[in-house]
Design goal:
Helices cover 46% and strands 18% of the residues. By secondary structure, the chain is α/β, with parallel strands linked by helices.
């Protein structure tokens, strides 16, 4: 500060600054004035300030510092959070958070701008709820419930949709009106539930189960806008897990565009509003017609290209087949011409005549050879016959006497000899030989065999004496 100048008197306790006297005093330079204010601001104690974050900018790409305002109903002030302070917070600042700042005011000499330098930042009120929601989001993300690969595909055109929402609000009417306007062919099942207040997550989970049992192609979980506290129902962990485990794809449309809940993060598709959720499952009829027409045209073009390609391929195959057939016919023609030049084809009877001549010659040689062969075979046969006769007689002679003795013995033992001496053999009606007269029955018949012939006799009497 230049010597001889009186500094500007500033009373931060609420009194007005004393104006500088016009007589005998030179005015301060801008630098001196800013420096004077900066020195007086530094004397202020450390303050704790509560307010709502607004106009958040940061972290800066180069410095990493954050700049924003905190405001209440009537006032706002600029705030700076240095990089290290922001990194140690463990959470991210954004517009709408309620925070408690601890720090001191300071003046930037370059612009004379008054800012509050926050040494610590704590969440308060809604900010605590947001911090809890962020912690739950990190937990579920670590488990993979928010992984895009886990989310199931949703048909582009759903024919049957279930809506889970409150039946007392205007949301269900908006959804019905949107579906009727865009595509009246979509069937709609409505399952009512509470969307805020104590016990709301449990009613939503029951409604999801009822909707899933109806086996629609998709479920719309929707509700209208509201405060952050009103939407806390959809940040419930049990409800989020029920949405992720639902057997039917779930589409959420909760609140308005900036609102994002845990259920939005784990659902299969997140839409900004209930109306957008309804539009996502029911393309407009004219859009469907346009898509079908475009696909018809693309299919026609593709089919034309396919037919052209197949025509070229068929022509190529035909050319190759013609060339191959001509080559094969040429080979067969050469083979036929070679066969036609053979002697058997030029003069078929010549081969027969040649074979006939050969047969006649063979016949003549056979006739000439047969008498000699037969004479030689006859001599050999007579020689062998004489040898066999002599050998046979020498082999049979030792057994002739034995055979004579055995024949005599057989003749002596033959029953016929006994019968020849006057004995007879009696047989009963069953053909059994009768050796005991007691075996015969009176008036029965017996067959009697004699030495020559036999006769039948009637038994008139039986004598059993020995």
């Amino acid at each position: 500060m230049a010597s001889g100048r009186n500094p500007l008197a500033i009373d931060f306790g609420g009194s007005h600054a004393a104006p500088a006297s016009d007589a005998g005093e030179a005015p301060l330079s801008v630098s001196d004035a800013v420096e004077t204010v900066k020195n007086n601001v530094k004397s202020l104690p450390t303050l704790m300030v509560a307010g709502e974050v607004s106009g958040f900018r940061g972290p800066n790409a180069r410095s990493g510092h954050c700049y924003f305002q905190v405001k209440d109903d009537t006032s706002s002030m600029d705030v700076i959070v240095w990089r290290n302070t922001y990194a140690s917070m463990g959470t991210q600042l954004r517009d709408g958070l309620s925070v408690v700042l601890t720090g001191k005011f300071d003046v930037y000499v370059g612009t004379g701008k008054l800012s509050f330098i926050a040494r610590s930042v704590e969440l308060a009120g809604e900010g605590l709820l947001r911090q809890q929601v962020e912690a739950l989001a990190k937990k579920l993300a670590a488990e993979g419930l928010m992984d895009e690969r886990r989310k199931r595909p949703i048909p582009r055109f759903c024919t049957r949709v279930a809506v889970v929402t409150s039946l007392s609000g205007s949301v269900i009417d908006d959804v019905k009106r949107t579906l009727r306007r865009r595509n009246p062919l979509v069937e709609l099942d409505v399952v009512g539930c509470a969307v805020q207040g104590p016990g709301a997550p449990q009613t939503i989970m029951r409604a999801l189960q009822v909707a899933a049992n109806a086996r629609p192609e998709a479920i719309l979980l929707v509700r209208g806008g509201g405060s952050f506290e009103d939407l806390m129902t959809f940040n419930d962990e049990s409800l989020a897990r029920a949405v992720a485990d639902c057997p039917v794809p779930v589409i959420t449309g909760i609140g308005h565009e900036p609102d994002t809940s845990i259920c939005d993060m784990v659902s299969d598709r997140r839409c900004s509003t209930p109306t957008a959720a309804a539009e996502s499952v029911a393309p407009a009829i004219d859009e469907v017609v346009s898509v079908v027409e475009a696909r018809r045209q693309r299919m026609g073009i593709a089919l034309g290209k396919m037919l052209s390609t197949e025509q070229l391929r068929t022509q190529g195959l035909q050319d190759r087949a013609t060339h191959a057939m001509q080559g094969m016919l040429g080979k067969e023609r050469s083979l036929l011409e070679a066969m036609a030049r053979r002697r058997c084809l030029e003069n078929p009877l010549g081969f027969v005549e040649e074979r006939q001549t050969q047969l006649l010659q063979s016949e003549q040689r056979l006739h000439d050879a047969m008498p000699r062969v037969l004479d030689r075979e006859r001599r050999m046969t007579n020689l062998y016959a004489d040898r066999m006769r002599v050998a046979g007689e020498s082999l049979v002679r030792p057994h002739q006497a034995t055979m004579a003795r055995m024949a005599a013995s057989l003749d002596a033992l033959s029953p016929l000899k006994v019968l020849a001496r006057g004995y007879a053999i009696a047989r009963d009606e069953q053909g059994h030989v009768v050796s005991n007269a007691a075996d015969l029955a009176i008036n029965g018949t017996v067959n009697v065999v004699l030495g020559k012939g036999s006769f039948d006799a009637l038994v008139t009497d039986v004598h059993t004496e020995e």
